Amino acid sequence: MQDLAATVTADEFLARWQAQRLIGAKAYRPTELWTSPHLRERGFWETVETPDGPRPILGPQFRMSETPRAVRGGASALGTAGAI
Predict the structure, then answer these.
(1) Is the pLDDT of residue 35 over 70?
(2) What does the DSSP 8-state code read for residue 46?
(3) For the whole model, what pTM was predicted?
(4) Of 1-10, 24-33, 45-54, 68-77, which gets the smallest average pLDDT?
(5) For residue 66, how far is the Cα from the chain centroid?
(6) Domain layout of the chain by residue ranges
């Protein structure tokens, strides 16, 4: 398996498995998830305003119609958060 995996892309490897009706999935890097049309369409990403401009954040893991999540802002800048 390692020899085969070293010679083909992850997508080719997965296609070969699926052609044989085997169960398999690709493990994505976080940078690959950002560009996923599927995750964007499902609202997986949200945007939050920060002092440095808008930044993407993960959307909620689940959605509840009666109590939707409300993001109030980005994280504090490094070294500016007050004592708890």
Answers:
(1) yes
(2) E
(3) 0.47
(4) 68-77
(5) 25
(6) 1-27, 36-72
